[in-house]
Amino acid sequence: MKDKAKIAVSACLLGQRVRYDGKEKKHKLIVEVFLNQLSDKVEFIPFCPEVAIGLGIPRPKIQVVKSDTKKNNKEQIRVLGVENHRLDVTEPLISYAETFLQQHPDIKAFIVKSKSPSCGFLSTPLFEASLEGSYKQIDFTSGMFVQSLLKLKPELQIIEESQLTSEYACLSFLKSI
Ligand code: SF4
């Protein structure tokens, strides 16, 4: 019998109450197609980087910020608390990506939550401190967990839930793995 395709999935999309506000973001189509119709072909591995690094539920909101301090002459991207800018979870999110890939070396694909500072894939707001001290959005980027995954393993297939809008889109993603 052929092995099931292992797909890592942001846990909030499966209905787990792991978001910063203690809520979930269950994606009914993903659950219906992959877990109900294709359960003999697919195994989901849920993950939540922010819970895994010990931020807890509920937790302070975080955001991706272009830092004005430079390292090796390069601008730095950090993940900081929205209210408390001293909360910096950049390194823990990077290390968790390493740990996750070590624990699951056979995972080739991820379904991730859009816009998240940890899980987003090219849809996450990127902020910069303005002269008045507030933060303004300057661009979009990926969440730090996803950025780190791709640095370690560029060949990973990563898709956001916002692109899985039909059964056909889900099946096409599965075929591409
Ligand atoms: S988007 Fe990612 S970090 Fe945020 S709750 Fe969902 S799984 Fe956790």
Describe it for me?
The chain has 177 residues and is α/β, with parallel strands linked by helices. It has one domain (5-176). It is built from 5 helices and 8 strands. Strands 2-1-5-8 form a 4-stranded parallel β-sheet, with helices on one face. Strands 4-3-6-7 form a 4-stranded mixed β-sheet, with no helix packed on it. Helix 3 packs across helix 4. The structure holds iron/sulfur cluster (SF4). Iron/sulfur cluster binds next to helix 2.
Question: Could you give a short description of this structure?
Answer:
27% of the residues lie in helices and 29% in strands. The chain has 5 helices and 8 strands, in the order βαβαββαβββαβα. Residues 10-12, 18-19, 48-50, 113, 116, 118-119 line the site of iron/sulfur cluster (SF4).
Number of domains in the coordinates? Answer: 1
Report Rg.
Answer: 17 Å
Task: Name the helicity range.
Answer: 25-40%
Give the distinct bound molecules: iron/sulfur cluster
Poorly predicted runs of 5 or more residues: none
Helix and strand layout, with pairings?
Layout: E1 5-10, H1 28-37, E2 42-47, H2 49-52, E3 62-71, E4 74-81, H3 90-103, E5 109-112, E6 124-129, E7 135-141, H4 144-152, E8 157-160, H5 167-176
Helix pairs in contact: 3-4
